[in-house]
Design goal:
Blueprint lengths: L1 E5 L2 E4 L8 E4 L1 E6 L2 E7 H8 L4 E4 L3 E4 L1 E3 L2 H6 L9 H4 L6 H5 L5 H17 L2 E5 L5 H10 L2 E3 L15 E4 L5 E6 L2 E5 L2
Parallel strand pairs: 1-6, 2-7, 8-9, 9-10
Antiparallel strand pairs: 1-4, 2-3, 4-5, 7-11, 11-12, 12-13
């Protein structure tokens, strides 16, 4: 399905962070897993509007965040289930608190899924591995979040993969998309 994402601005990074610029009034068109077009909203509406669904977000659309400490975040911390909040709290456990837990592969996998959800809620679309725990590796692979082994390109370009995030002025992530699919939406 063709979708126009209308935002207050689009932050473009062409090939290098020094080439970054923010374009007010811009929007993106997504078809399937790819960007079809990026440009002024009025131009995109004129070209695609009759065939497209329009989504409006009150923020700035950017390439998704890159998390260079993804492996440590998911493999060196336990992300408690909300049902464990009374006993363990709501924040990730590390160090002695982590060592005190008896974690099975199933619990590591569930922790990794919750950790990935936290990352998506922050606008993360790429993280660095490698992941040594099979349950964590499986959770990452099934989530659709990309794993990178080196620097990641951050360009928003037509025909590029539609991985992006939309951030409000206060820095909160409103939306995260992987392959054009919304995987996080702030309530």
């Amino acid at each position: 399905m063709l979708t126009i994402h209308r935002v207050r601005a689009v932050r473009l990074v062409v090939d290098h962070p020094s080439e970054e610029r923010t374009e007010p009034g811009y929007a993106v068109v997504v078809t399937g897993a790819r960007f079809a077009a990026i440009g002024p909203y009025e131009d995109l509406l004129a070209e695609y509007g009759e065939r497209a669904r329009i989504r409006e977000w009150d923020g700035t659309l950017t390439p998704g965040r890159y998390e260079p400490d993804g492996a440590a975040y998911l493999e060196a911390a336990y992300h408690p289930d909300p049902r464990e909040a009374d006993a363990l709290g709501g924040e990730p456990l590390t160090g002695e608190a982590l060592a005190a837990l008896e974690l099975t592969d199933a619990r590591w996998g569930a922790s990794a899924r919750r950790g990935v959800q936290r990352l998506l809620a922050r606008g993360t679309t790429v993280l660095t591995g490698p992941f040594t725990r099979p349950a964590v590796r499986t959770a990452v692979a099934r989530s659709g979040i990309r794993e990178a082994s080196g620097p990641r390109p951050r360009a928003l370009v037509p025909s590029g993969v539609a991985d992006f995030a939309v951030f409000a002025d206060d820095g909160d992530c409103l939306v995260t998309a992987l392959d054009g699919r919304l995987v996080h939406r702030r309530r």
